[in-house]
Amino acid sequence: MQRRTFNKVLGSGLLVAASPSLIKGLLFANDGTLFASYERALLVDEKGEPVRLGALATEVPYVFHYPHIATPCFLIKLPEPLKQEVALKSSSGETYLWKGGVGKEKNVVAFSAICSHALTHPNPEDSFITYVPKGGQTMAYDKGGVVVCSSHLSAFDPKQGAKSVAGEAKDPLASIVLEYDEANDKVYASGVLGMEMFHQYFRIFRPQLADRFQSARKARQLVKVSTATVTLSAFTKEIIQY
Ligand code: FES
């Protein structure tokens, strides 16, 4: 995959180079490597109401789509506070800093739900990738509290920025950058940090996505304004987890 540089999205959806210093408080990598900013989207529930952090069930994986209307992401409220920043490394050797989630405990986190190994992802029919709660069991890892891709038994630790901790996957899951408007209790997605797999995803799953979104071009549309957020079990008919 090509090394990506820092980009900022203007209102038109056009990606242009921008200085990392222009994004206040969101400087993730010194040179902006592996960080892309997109139009900010409000996370809303199935009724179109803003997702409230206090109303999220702990350790239940939610699905929303960002930055494209066809790229699924997980939203997870973890059971413990996250205070540490985590330095992560891509398989190509680039390092970047993950700053945790949002909320008072920084424990509401979001990641691309496209597996960094071979792109397994949730779709309306089934999902071989899910979050296994702390007390849960998986063949992929010796304990729960991890995102597990059961296609080839990879595990990712959401407390460590979805770093790969077991299996074939080498890259962390890409992080979705969240912003929290505390005064209004609103959560926004605003960027992607890490080695996202969108290009390969749109190429490999072109027929399925074209079918589901009427055309491959429509599937690539960027999310505007808001993005619906539902539990994984409501999004897909079957969750397969080993
Ligand atoms: S596709 Fe996820 S582990 Fe292989």
From TrEMBL:
PROSITE patterns: RIESKE (PS51296). The keyword Iron applies. It comes from the Bacteria. Residues 70-187 form the Rieske domain. Transmembrane segments: none annotated. Keywords: 2Fe-2S, Iron, Iron-sulfur, Metal-binding. InterPro entries: Rieske_2Fe-2S, Rieske_2Fe-2S_sf. SUPFAM superfamilies: ISP domain. This is Rieske 2Fe-2S domain-containing protein. It comes from Sulfurospirillum tamanense. The lineage of its organism: Bacteria, Pseudomonadati, Campylobacterota, Epsilonproteobacteria, Campylobacterales.
